[in-house]
């Protein structure tokens, strides 16, 4: 439960601290005094969106901090799942910088807003006037039934199975669509694949074939020039080798006379050997050059096939053609093996659907089992709140699986005898909505372990004896929950064990919202003013004191 609340630099609040009672706390004050501002600040602790425009002093950061006593509440696993330190006192803090940047902390550990919402949803439940509108929503009505049935475990299991089913279903449908599309293209892809495969392409063959074709097409010219080159180098009558041989002989002679010319002689000798080897190699190459018209035709045909395929596939190399061939092979193979793959995906989808429906039926059974009790308790509580002829009927329809199960819940309501129950939005007035919502919160309180429940003017549209009974219901709920009720009714304000008064302080240069815990005498004055206006009579003051005395002594 909330043991301490700090609000600093938020809207009209410069600095506010309060230590709510563990039982029923009532908060009163004039319209616009700042009660809704307090609720907005608490909403930030619950993970609501932050806005730098809400800063009291725009140049300073806003801090909202809540200390919660969570001893006795089994939520340790939640902290473990989110890697948060657990202690019997949980400190939740939200900061908003002047730039608008927002940060959240749980026990001094920075957390995302999703984690903040998950943690604080186990610490507080805020009922605002917006919830009365939500009451007309089928999803909200379903949530009420699940809360009463305590379906948390069943709902978690169902949603896990639902996510698994959706993944398997999407995978199967994607494979079906992909296979259908590929089957349309199969014949063409198969033709292209076989066309490439039959060619048995080699990575470097195009360059080799083009080089060989060039040689064959110019064989006579190449052969003639190689022969001339060979003759220039080594001809029996007149050639470079003959002249170089004479050079070597002359150098051998002078070297015998002196060693001075031995290095020159050796270089000439090496050159003679190299030129003879070069001449032999040129001669061998010349002998290997042959004209082969049949081979030329074969190469040209092969290259034309390669060129045509490159044009068809808009590529320039054999390597790219081989890549395309591999990709086509995968597509063709996938189609040839698609029946087996589809069968496996279908089986996985059907197994996931079977598991999902088992979880859905378990959830539906649990919901159906509690509906008579909800109807009975709501009708009984509404009778206590001055609506003896009111009737709530909960209609259940079964449909396709959704995130929340296979059930659609509809609350049908009638406030008057002999009138058939209809959709809430069509038949319930503001006061009837308030009483119905109070009743629902009352019966759900025993089903939830929430430490703190906050009511924001849940008494809208009611007065008199009904307001007293609503106050009694809150007081009863406060025996097992911490209740904080923002109210305009003296009947409910008087029920609080602690009473806080919110007011505007205009004594400074800027209006500030403040809150103070009222003493007994201050409560008498406040309750009296709520009954009779700013100048209550003696009888009104006496009435206020009588309303408070039993509560003040408890």
UniProtKB/TrEMBL annotation:
<feature type="domain" description="RecF/RecN/SMC N-terminal">
    <location>
        <begin position="2"/>
        <end position="508"/>
    </location>
</feature>
<dbReference type="Pfam" id="PF02463">
    <property type="entry name" value="SMC_N"/>
</dbReference>
<keyword id="KW-0547">Nucleotide-binding</keyword>
<feature type="coiled-coil region">
    <location>
        <begin position="335"/>
        <end position="362"/>
    </location>
</feature>
<keyword id="KW-0175">Coiled coil</keyword>
<feature type="coiled-coil region">
    <location>
        <begin position="268"/>
        <end position="295"/>
    </location>
</feature>
<keyword id="KW-0227">DNA damage</keyword>
<dbReference type="GO" id="GO:0006281">
    <property type="term" value="P:DNA repair"/>
</dbReference>
<dbReference type="GO" id="GO:0006310">
    <property type="term" value="P:DNA recombination"/>
</dbReference>
<dbReference type="InterPro" id="IPR003395">
    <property type="entry name" value="RecF/RecN/SMC_N"/>
</dbReference>
<dbReference type="InterPro" id="IPR004604">
    <property type="entry name" value="DNA_recomb/repair_RecN"/>
</dbReference>
<protein>
    <recommendedName>
        <fullName>DNA repair protein RecN</fullName>
    </recommendedName>
</protein>
<dbReference type="InterPro" id="IPR027417">
    <property type="entry name" value="P-loop_NTPase"/>
</dbReference>
<dbReference type="GO" id="GO:0009432">
    <property type="term" value="P:SOS response"/>
</dbReference>
<comment type="similarity">
    <text>Belongs to the RecN family.</text>
</comment>
<comment type="function">
    <text>May be involved in recombinational repair of damaged DNA.</text>
</comment>
<keyword id="KW-0067">ATP-binding</keyword>
<feature type="coiled-coil region">
    <location>
        <begin position="199"/>
        <end position="229"/>
    </location>
</feature>
<keyword id="KW-0234">DNA repair</keyword>
<dbReference type="GO" id="GO:0005524">
    <property type="term" value="F:ATP binding"/>
</dbReference>
<dbReference type="GO" id="GO:0043590">
    <property type="term" value="C:bacterial nucleoid"/>
</dbReference>
């Amino acid at each position: 439960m909330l043991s301490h609340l700090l609000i600093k630099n938020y809207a009209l609040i410069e600095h506010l601290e309060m230590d709510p009672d563990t039982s029923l706390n009532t908060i009163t004050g004039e319209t616009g005094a700042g009660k809704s501002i307090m609720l907005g600040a608490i909403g930030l602790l619950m993970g609501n969106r932050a806005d730098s425009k809400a800063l009291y002093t725009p140049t300073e950061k806003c801090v909202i901090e809540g200390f919660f006593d969570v001893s006795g509440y089994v939520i340790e696993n939640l902290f473990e799942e989110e890697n948060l330190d657990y202690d019997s006192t949980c400190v939740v803090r939200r900061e908003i910088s002047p730039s608008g940047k927002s940060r959240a902390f749980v026990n001094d550990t920075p957390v995302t807003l999703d984690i903040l919402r998950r943690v604080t949803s186990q610490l507080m439940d805020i009922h605002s006037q917006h919830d009365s509108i939500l009451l007309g929503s089928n999803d909200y009505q379903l949530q009420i039934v699940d809360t009463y049935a305590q379906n948390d475990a069943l709902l978690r299991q169902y949603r896990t199975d639902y996510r698994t089913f959706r993944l398997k279903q999407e995978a199967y449908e994607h494979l079906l669509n992909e296979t259908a599309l590929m089957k349309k293209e199969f014949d063409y892809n198969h033709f292209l694949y076989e066309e490439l495969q039959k060619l048995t392409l080699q990575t470097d063959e195009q360059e080799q074939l083009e080089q060989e074709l060039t040689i064959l097409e110019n064989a006579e010219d190449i052969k003639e020039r190689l022969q001339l080159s060979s003759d220039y180098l080594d001809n029996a009558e007149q050639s470079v080798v003959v002249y170089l041989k004479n050079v070597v002989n002359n150098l051998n002679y002078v070297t015998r006379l002196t060693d001075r010319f031995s290095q020159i002689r050796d270089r000439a000798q090496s050159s003679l050997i190299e030129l003879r080897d070069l001449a032999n190699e040129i001669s061998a190459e010349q002998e290997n050059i042959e004209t082969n018209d049949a081979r030329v035709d074969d190469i040209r045909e092969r290259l034309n096939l390669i060129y045509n395929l490159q044009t068809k596939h808009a590529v320039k190399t054999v390597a790219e053609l081989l890549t395309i061939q591999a990709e086509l092979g995968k597509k063709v193979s996938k189609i040839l093996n698609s029946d087996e793959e589809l069968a496996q995906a279908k089986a996985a989808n059907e197994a996931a659907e079977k598991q999902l429906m088992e979880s859905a039926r378990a959830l539906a059974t649990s919901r159906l089992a509690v509906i008579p009790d909800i109807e009975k308790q709501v009708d009984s509580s509404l009778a206590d709140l001055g609506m003896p002829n009111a009737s709530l009927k909960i209609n259940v329809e079964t449909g396709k699986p959704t995130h929340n199960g296979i059930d659609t819940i509809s609350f049908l309501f009638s406030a008057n005898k002999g009138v058939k129950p209809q959709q809430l939005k069509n038949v319930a007035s503001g006061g009837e909505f308030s009483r119905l919502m109070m009743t629902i919160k009352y019966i759900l309180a025993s089903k939830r372990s929430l430490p703190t429940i906050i009511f924001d003017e849940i008494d809208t549209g009611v007065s008199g004896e009904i307001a007293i009974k609503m106050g009694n219901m809150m007081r009863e709920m406060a025996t097992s929950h911490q209740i904080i009720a923002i109210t305009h009714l003296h009947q409910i304000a008087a029920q609080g064990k602690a009473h806080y008064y919110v007011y505007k302080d205009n004594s400074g240069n800027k209006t500030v919202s403040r809150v103070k815990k009222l003493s007994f005498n201050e409560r008498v004055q406040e309750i009296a003013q709520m009954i009779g206006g700013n100048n209550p009579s003696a009888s009104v003051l006496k009435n206020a004191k009588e309303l408070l005395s039993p509560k003040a002594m408890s």
